[in-house]
Amino acid sequence: MKYLDALIIGAGFSGLYQLHCLRDKLKLNTLVVEEGKDIGGTWYWNTYPGARCDSESFTYGFTFSEKIFKNWTWKERYPKQNVILKYLKYFSNELKLKKNIVFNEKVISAKYIEKNNLWKVQTNNKKKYYTKYLICAVGSLSSINLPKIKGINQFKGQLHHSGRWPRKKNKL
Question: How does the average pLDDT of the chain come out, rounded?
C-alpha cells in the first residue's frame, strides 16, 4: 500500500500537465498510473498508418514554460502521431516527469472512503494506493469501442482497431 497526496490516471497531455502542476507547483506527493508502456495517451495507442492530429500544431505546445515552448519547433501544420509523441517525450524529459509514473499498470477500481477522506485505488497488478486527490486523465480517445458484429468470431482474416494497432506492423 502506498499513500499519496494525488494519483493521476493516464500519462497523456492532461495527465502529464497535471503531474507537473501538482508535483512541481504545489509540491504534492503525486503519482501517475499508466496502462501503456510509455507516455502519450491517445498518441501512444493510436499508431495506425497515417495517424496525425486534426488540430494545428501550435495548439499542442505547452506555453507555461518559455524555455520548453521556444526550444521546440513544429515542422508541420498538422503533426503526425510520432512527432506528437516526440514532443511529449521532450516535455516529459525537460520536467523529469517519468520518475513519478508507473507504466504497464491499469486502475481497475477506485472507491472513496468517506470516513478517511481518501480514495482507495486498486490496479491490475494488485497494488493499492490511498490518495486524497484522484484525477482521471484517461482521455476519451484512448479507449476503444469494439462493435458487436454477428459472426465476427468466424472471420479468418486479420482484425485491427485504430486504437490498438499492432506495434510491430505499422503497415498493412
Answer: 91
- Tens of pLDDT, residue by residue over 8-64, are 999 999 999 999 999 999 999 999 999 999 999 989 998 888 999 999 998 888 999
For the chain, domain boundaries: 2-140+154-164
pLDDT of residue 142: 65
Q: Which pTM was predicted? A: 0.87
What CATH number belongs to 2-140+154-164? 3.50.50.60
Q: DSSP of the chain, one letter per residue?
A: -EEEEEEEE--SHHHHHHHIIIIIIS---EEEE-SSSSS-THHHH---TT-B-SS-GGGGS--S-HHHHHT----SSS-BHHHHHHHHHHHHHHHT-GGGEE-S--EEEEEEEGGGTEEEEEETTS-EEEEEEEEE---TTSS------TTGGG--S----GGG--SS----
Cell numbers standing for residue 119? 480514495
